[in-house]
Design brief:
45% of the residues lie in helices and 14% in strands. By secondary structure, the chain is α/β, with parallel strands linked by helices. The protein has three domains: 197 residues, 3-Layer(aba) Sandwich (Rossmann fold); 80 residues, N-(1-d-carboxylethyl)-l-norvaline Dehydrogenase, domain 2 (Orthogonal Bundle); 135 residues, NAD(P)-binding Rossmann-like Domain (Rossmann fold). It has an eight-stranded mixed beta sheet with strand order 3-2-1-4-5-6-7-8, with helices on both faces. A six-stranded parallel beta sheet has the order 11-10-9-12-13-14. α1 crosses α3. The longest helix has 32 residues. The chain is elongated. The relative contact order is 0.09. The structure holds uridine-5'-diphosphate-xylopyranose (UDX). Uridine-5'-diphosphate-xylopyranose (UDX) binds next to α10. Its EC number is 1.1.1.22.
Length: 435
Amino acid sequence: MKLAMIGTGYVGLVSGVCFADFGFHVTCVDKNPSIIDRLKAGKATIYEPGLDELMARNIRDGRLEFTTDLAASVADADVIFIAVGTPSRRGDGEADLQYIEAAADEIAAAMKPGAVVVIKSTVVVGTNARIRDRIAAARPGVPFSMVSNPEFLREGSAIEDFLRPDRVVVGVEDERGKAAMQRVYRPLYLRETPLVITTLENAELIKYAANAFLAMKVTFINEVADLCEKTGGNVQEVARAIGMDKRIGSKFLHAGPGFGGSCFPKDTRAFAATGKRYGARQTLIEQVIEVNEARKQAMAERIVSAARESSTDTVAILGIAFKPNTDDIRESPALDIVPAVQKAGLTVRAHDPEAMEAAKAALPGVVWCNSAYEAATGAGVVALLTEWNAYRALDLKRLASLMNGNVLIDLRNVYKGEDLEGTGLDYRGVGRSLK
Ligand code: UDX
């Protein structure tokens, strides 16, 4: 069985490499020749733990290829996955489907009869049916099957998530599409991963509802953290105990600077926009978006007022990526927080283990540093924004000795009381006080 994967972003590259590892022949396609050259040389274009090794093995064994030639890769493919981006459209927050439509047109022109076309990109309800009609109109009389197969992998643990998902969701319309999906996911099936077989529309709705719910969970605990701060509570203890209720569940209850990334912000906006369009407002999610935006500004204000109290003009920011183990800065809280801090007249010194290259263009005026310690040097306030492992065991005495001030704002609640002993740091976590 031959697979073609259109788009080599997070979802496309990780899925393509993992399907090759399942034993299928996979051709990954991207329009950008420099991306393809890099991938051909066995170098992943994204930072994802374990990906380089998996790529190398499958390239060596001849199961994984890369090309810019979409038509050639699609011509003999049995299953064609579309994994191109669906960014937010400016203005109305709707998902921009131009890349999906362009890919569908090229696939329609080149696919063989009986091909199975699978949309893996996150697309709003109704898109799969529209794309099906578009392909059918371009190739009248040529049989093919449409499948919706949303992907739930997280950056930073993408391979693990692909190989051990809680469930695989596939929306199908016919037996051919269903059989193809059962075959490509057979290795997971054998590990008893549930394969949820449903309609195209349900599959689309499941993906958005899942991400919207998770974003809501994060936003909920962030507001609880605010209340904990005002009342002497501890959000970690509250989260732990409410999470023991299986109806609530323990995951996604870490308070922080607000959610970011390539999915939650754009997917919540698209979900809200879809609700408006159909006259079924998702008011809860509209509110989640608003609360999350306000939170990022509130975090910036926290840093600025700490700097004012300390009479410092320099702040160190540790972590720019929206979460650890990725170099992705898309909609990272840091992209709102850093400019707001600069706007208050403060100098920002920053470090991130993987995201500095990406961040340089996005955050002008920042003094980029080679380590957390270098960033902290001369700063009156240090703010930890991303919970990289490298920031979990900092030598806080050393950090404090390099600073010109003593406030540590830990927006990820990485440190505990005993870590602070003897450091002289004025520690400020989220939703808890260590005093
Ligand atoms: C998310 C979904 O988890 C995944 O299923 C979907 O396919 C894509 O979107 P990802 O964006 O990679 O994955 O990151 P995730 O780990 O879910 O974190 C999203 C954001 O929420 C990050 O900014 C993270 O810092 C924040 N977050 C998450 C919290 O602040 N607290 C939490 O408890 C969990």
